[in-house]
Design a protein that fits this description.
Number of helices: 2
CATH superfamily: Exonuclease VII, small subunit
Distance between the termini: 25 Å
Mean pLDDT: 81
Number of strands: 0
Order of helices and strands: HH
Helix content: 55-70%
CATH architecture: Orthogonal Bundle
CATH class: Mainly Alpha
Number of domains: 1
Length: 85
């Protein structure tokens, strides 16, 4: 179930969509400085939410892999960022 709302209650997909929207808005360069700073701060918060969600997903995948293999060893998932990140 996907949570919606503000702060930590927002789901990954919604946070990412909003972050992409903010980036596009900032790239246009049409916002007054104060508005741009506010949007930037909002974007930083959204990026932290996305990173937390990705970290939780990575831990869940690691646990599933360990359980499937019947092993206690942890196999960290390497997430490589591309130029779009």
């Amino acid at each position: 179930m996907r949570k919606r709302g503000r702060g930590q209650d927002v789901c990954f997909e919604d946070a990412l969509d909003k972050l992409e929207s903010i980036v596009k808005e900032l790239e246009k360069g049409e916002l007054p400085l104060e508005d741009a700073l506010g949007r930037f701060a909002e974007g930083v918060g959204l990026s932290q939410i996305c990173l937390a969600r990705l970290s939780a997903a990575e831990q869940a995948v690691d646990k599933i892999i360990r359980e499937e293999k019947g092993q206690v060893n942890e196999y960290p998932l390497k997430i490589q960022e591309d130029e779009k990140c």
